[in-house]
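### Sample
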Amino acid sequence: MTATTSTTTLVLPVPSAAVSTPERRRTTRHYLVCEPRHFAVEYSINPWMDPSAPLDTDLALAQWRALVEVYEALGHRVSRIAPVPGLPDMVFAANSGTVVRGRVLGARFRAPQRAAEADHFRTWFQANGHPRVVMPTRVNEAEGDFAWTGDLLLAGTGFRTDPAAHAEAQEVLGVPVVSLSLVDPAYYHLDTALVVLSEATPDHRAHIAYYPEAFSAGSREALRTLYPDAILATPEDAACLGLNAVSDGHNVVVPREATHLSARLTESGYTVHPVDISELRKSGGGPKCCTLEIRA
């Protein structure tokens, strides 16, 4: 099997009711997070990272704690994995696993600086109700490049995750996969350029927001076909990692600078919760990067 087989999902039928605007309904989520106790920018593996720039670790901790407080105030379950010295990017938990319908696919990092994170998360999953974690054979940076829509797994490639990892995800998770090509190195992971706002139901397609210029021409056409009602982000939204957001179907946690996106979300029936992630952004991360969703 090759990754190209996954593109057959592009012709899936869309329910006739999908053109209506559904009520935005919150569902309780389970998130895994990692405190940025050892957070630092010690190397550069994406265009956002500058080891020579000043960094306030205490401020990063405060911003992370405020993010977690938002999740808990919204009634979501938040689990924590202990940070490990020498792994400054472990705070970006989303890169370390993909959980869909109780199945867990681990991560395999492209950058050697982050490679050790994968095994710490594997151990956590095995100790917390997921003994059958499958570790990938291909480079796969998990929810950094995989976005579950409720019926499809959107899968990014171009800078981190191998195209062949998309077919591997389909086999392990047992869900159809749509491959999307990223073309702008500033948006090196899918979760920097696209967010799932509400998942698909029998009556409505999933609702997403994305930044078109981050994708290849063919991927833009695929997204237009699948999600004609998507919210399109502006360059300003993308430049503050505004799409690195977290949604429970009604509440959307978004970087506070993404004002245009926030306005569009409000117009579309969502409740926006702006957060400050200015220090975490210095490593190319935002709310979603810090948040791995565990889907039972």
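The mean pLDDT is 94. This sample (Amidinotransferase) is used throughout the tutorial notebook.
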